[in-house]
Amino acid sequence: MYALNETHDPALTSWVASANTPDTDFPIQNLPFASFRRQGSSEAFRGGVAIGDQILDLAAAANSGVFNDLPLTALMACAGPDLNPFMAMGRDAWSALRLALSQTLRAGALAESALTNCLVPQAQAEYKLPCHIHDYTDFYTSIFHATAVGSLFRPDNPLLPNYKWVPIGYHGRASSIGVSGQSFPRPCGQTKAPDATEPSFGPCKRLDYEVEVGIYVGKGNALGDTVSIDEAEDHIFGLCLFNDWSARDIQAWEYQPLGPFLAKNFASTVSPWIITNEALAPFRSAFTRDAADPQPLPYLTGDNNTAQGGYDLTLECFIKTAGSDAENKVSTSNFRHSYWTAAQMLAHHTVNGCNLQPGDLIGSGTQSGPDHKEAGSLLELTRGGKEPLPLANGETRTFLQDGDSVIMRGHCEKAGARRIGFGEVVSTVLPARVRA
Amino acid sequence: MYALNETHDPALTSWVASANTPDTDFPIQNLPFASFRRQGSSEAFRGGVAIGDQILDLAAAANSGVFNDLPLTALMACAGPDLNPFMAMGRDAWSALRLALSQTLRAGALAESALTNCLVPQAQAEYKLPCHIHDYTDFYTSIFHATAVGSLFRPDNPLLPNYKWVPIGYHGRASSIGVSGQSFPRPCGQTKAPDATEPSFGPCKRLDYEVEVGIYVGKGNALGDTVSIDEAEDHIFGLCLFNDWSARDIQAWEYQPLGPFLAKNFASTVSPWIITNEALAPFRSAFTRDAADPQPLPYLTGDNNTAQGGYDLTLECFIKTAGSDAENKVSTSNFRHSYWTAAQMLAHHTVNGCNLQPGDLIGSGTQSGPDHKEAGSLLELTRGGKEPLPLANGETRTFLQDGDSVIMRGHCEKAGARRIGFGEVVSTVLPARVRA
């Protein structure tokens, strides 16, 4: 866990004026990381930090003469197209750079004149994945999602006996993860109607999104080593928004006995900005279970990392249809409802000696809240497609149509802290490509 | 599919004398690829081709002055530590280099004097993974394995209704794949005895191997594009031996509903040599189903790629225990028993637009044959640990013990063709590391 320090002071303001507006996602208390370049340019992608409506170009900042020592070494690790070298440096380097950026972007800082030349407006930027994602693992940490989906796939047996003991996870596809702005054709595949004797082939008819939080691994571990629950927070670089697209009809037919495959691996989309774990320190949340829930095994509890292991992170989801500019809100949920913490996911993932690498992405699983309206997927909101969801613009949806864009936003807000935001992840469904 | 050509001529011999012995795995008809350097040296790893008991150093060969045009370009793509650039070049480049190597390594070739200096004895070499494996997917293509394992995990429902329609696959962990020689600690994890009320934590008690064939993707496809069944063979670079280690007790407790995770991702081991798809042309095998089996959907059949879609590849497995030098054979099976072909796996994997990348590894799933003695895992050979397996050295095994090494070998043999071998994959179980 990170202690609060001067970088979290809600009174801090920046000489970048747009960082001081009440509704910005990127005040000086946030300082998230991405990989960017100017739109349509042939510039190399390099690391950037968001400040208000600007991006601090970290390759330029490394050459500005403003920074020295560990912060300068850290900046140099951010100057290439992938942030993996910086993520691998570990917590001391991350904190040192955060402090140095906070001090130099602060109102009144002497560095203002030198760093002004290192700013690029976000409106002129394009992004790529912030790092090379070696492996992607998806967990299943919302007990409300697991119960609701389980009741659709297995009405007689919705929540399996292992759920409250094992942080259930599975490996996903790294190659098809894209950054916000991604579009992809509706997937084709095999499906079988419950009353059909044979499967058939065609475009997915039950295309869905999943509102997830992505967790980026910073420091890795060697094969055979474990990351204990008490060490796990030091291995978390930061969080992003994550849409884990799902083809429900393909999933229902293929997932036994080895889990989801083609139902998931056609696309997954991350937000461009990684909100660092240190920036999230003011928003850690209590971790509560029902009194009747079992105490997890010792390797999942540790000394102190579960008591405030959650994140009070509001997650909003919107659908924008092809024929309208309206962003129709379909749900609001919160990551604090997760049954398992990020530290528990990491400790579990490595308890058998599995090696994590800097830049690995860990999905939280769909974050549905306790109320039906807080569900993080259409599968849940429409009760398996049986109850069409009315949109504010007058349309309805059971599952997604071609041309639909799904937008997810997230923010942390709390009395006594400066609100920080996650930006957004938006991606669009294109028509299926059916071969002649 | 590859046609037979002069490189397959069984009468060919090499000026490397060890390539002409009847029992070598690496006659001039084989010419498999690896990444190697001299043992214990600080040399850079680079591509190599096995010939008899020697390795042709491809970086040295590129500088030998012997090669020109496309073969030279291909050699230059093999000169670095990872073969991905060569794998990405596609079939024309692979074939051109194979033909050039066959002609220059042939008995009587003028290149002998120049290439003699490019040989490194295999006895002096060490290997790494032949390429960067971006994503690893494991299939489940032996119906005999699926039925036997299904009957242990789900006695009432061994072979699920989707098996004969869907080439079942799931994503595995790329980071923990190692090359032959890998050792790893016995994994720890949660298990639950059927009669226990709660799970417990500790070292795996049912550690197992899986005899698999690995398929390396050559040319990839863009996100949203598909690889049709008739194009799929052009995307297959070659095959290797693959041991997909499995912790059966961890698997039984964790695998519902999203599939295996910690039961598999602690280690997987490949053989150093990739046998090219072209080298395997003489050994393609008929693809037979029972008359009662359903005809697969059209995207899995195509015009001609299933009739000879199998590989007649003998797979042998041995256990070497800590206290003895004996290699105790425990099974012999054959990849021709696979219910789904490699081309079907690739076509299925991409039918939803999932992008494959050069160097991706596709596991065949455990290759068990129709007879119980041909099973590719201890789980099957011991019927779930109930019938200890006698070893030739007098010991018995239900599951693996610390210090056990598992050795897998493979070869193709047929009248009218020169026998070729796969070399071996060997790896060793170390004691669990239990934290105090």
Automatic annotation (TrEMBL), chains A, B:
Keywords: Calcium, Hydrolase, Magnesium, Metal-binding, Phenylalanine catabolism, Tyrosine catabolism. Substrate binds at Y140, R154, Q251, Y255, T366. One of its GO terms (molecular function) is metal ion binding. The keyword Chloroplast does not apply. Its EC number is 3.7.1.2. Its cofactor is Mg(2+); Ca(2+). Pathway: Amino-acid degradation; L-phenylalanine degradation; acetoacetate and fumarate from L-phenylalanine: step 6/6. Residues 165-429 form the Fumarylacetoacetase-like C-terminal domain. Residues 29-130 form the Fumarylacetoacetase N-terminal domain. It is an enzyme of class 3 (hydrolase). Ca(2+) binds at D138, E210, E212, D244. GO terms for biological process: homogentisate catabolic process; L-phenylalanine catabolic process; L-tyrosine catabolic process. The active site is at H145. InterPro entries: Fumarylacetoacetase, Fumarylacetoacetase-like_C, Fumarylacetoacetase_C_sf, Fumarylacetoacetase_N, Fumarylacetoacetase_N_sf. It holds the Pfam family FAA_hydrolase. Mg(2+) binds at D244, K264, S268. Transmembrane segments: none annotated. The keyword Metal-binding applies. This is fumarylacetoacetase. The lineage of its organism: Bacteria, Pseudomonadati, Pseudomonadota, Gammaproteobacteria, Cellvibrionales.
